[in-house]
Amino acid sequence: MRECRGLPLPCVGMTPDRLRAACLEFTGAGEEFPFDEHISVFKVAGKMFALSALGRRPLSVNLKCEPELAVQLRSSYPAVTPGWHMNKRHWNTVVLDGSLPERMVLDLIEDSYDLVVAGLPRATRERLGWKALAEENVTRGPAAPPGHT
């Protein structure tokens, strides 16, 4: 496997079909076209977590991001810029030109989904089968030391 920017992951431009599939793989995710037939909006429980003009080149996607991480990503990767036509504090536009490893893009999509779901009412999160790491630790309690069950 070739390296991409020192990482042992391939650098390939994501296709529109791959982007759509990645956004729709999450529980409760759906695709809508509220603006026009060319702009795909991916939502969970009626809340947007990704937006892309899948026919536009270069392909890009707007993703929700924690503000501090958004700034770090923008300063580290030229393909990550403030969200186009979005709240620039909470959204990034990620250009899918192959300069970012696909695994990183998939992680950013998942992070966006998780941020949106974390803000949903608890009953909706439970219906989606989603638990934040903090909720899982409270439910399960701390892990037992090795050798103690």
UniProtKB/TrEMBL annotation:
Keywords: DNA-binding. SUPFAM superfamilies: YjbR-like. It comes from the Bacteria. InterPro entries: YjbR (IPR007351), YjbR-like_sf (IPR038056), YjbR/MT2646/Rv2570-like (IPR058532). Gene3D superfamilies: 3.90.1150.30. Transmembrane segments: none annotated. One of its GO terms (molecular function) is DNA binding. PANTHER family: CYTOPLASMIC PROTEIN, CYTOPLASMIC PROTEIN-RELATED. This is Putative DNA-binding protein (MmcQ/YjbR family).
